[in-house]
Amino acid sequence: MQAYGREREFIDAGQRASPPKSNAGVRNHPVNVKVLRLSRPRLPPIDLTNHDSIVHPSALLSVPSYFGSVYIGERFCCVVSANNMHAEKQLQVSVSAQVVLPSEQTVVLLHDSDFSSTLDPMKSTQKVLEYEAREPGAHVLNITVTYWSESEGEQNKAEKISFRKVYQFQVTPGLSVRTKLSPAPKGAFTIEAQIENVSESTMTLETINYLPAGGWTAKPLPGSTQLSLLARDVYQMAFLVMRDEAEKDPQPIGGGRLSLSWRREPLGEDGWLTTGPLKT
């Protein structure tokens, strides 16, 4: 079971994309909506040679005081909470959410039919949203809230009202992958992979696999076992790629891909990515 730290208000750079300059004419909605990111706790470095500094792990855990970063291949995870601020009235509330990518494509995270509820006075409901970051750049999270309120002067007639909140978060590369393809004896090839930690966090590589094109097999060559990378550290690994004798019509050798997974810091976010086809 995945354990998260306490929730942090979603206040990354940008916050609301277009905040109003004045409150004049702005409607006060009886529905309050908050978007909070779920954060894993952080464990600071420990000097194991100093016995006085070794305490129970729970005393060392902390949650970042800022929104934090999202790296390509990691999941952006947040909670959307809708609260009925009326002291006496029930409200029918629905919420939808979508992310607009840097490529201007839109990914729907939540349909309003999936998050619709009748809220008693001063009660709330919430939903967890997850999105796998695959593009670098600014991402825009649109939260649309719809509720039904009695029309003024018209009893038993509900008015449908919608409003939107807009937030922005940045996605950056955490790992840089470079590969080199070289011929080897007996029609085989070697794939050399160089993985650099371009983030500001410590990255622990958990799996590194080469996925060969059809008609080929691959096995890792002996190399370094140091898989914990500090910022700007580089890890190198090689694979031997050979023909699969059972396949008579192999695909081009350059169709293979490199797949890897990692975890940030001892207890941090995990992620994975697969490269595009290798260039020959």
Automatic annotation (TrEMBL):
Q: Which GO terms describe its cellular component?
A: TRAPPIII protein complex
Chain spans, region Disordered: 1-26
Q: Cross-referenced InterPro entries, in alphabetical order?
A: TRAPPC13, TRAPPC13_M, TRAPPC13_N
Report domain Trafficking protein particle complex subunit 13 N-terminal positions.
30-171
Q: Where is the composition biased (Basic and acidic residues)?
A: 1-11
What region holds the Trafficking protein particle complex subunit 13 middle domain? 175-279
Official protein name in the record: ARAD1B02024p
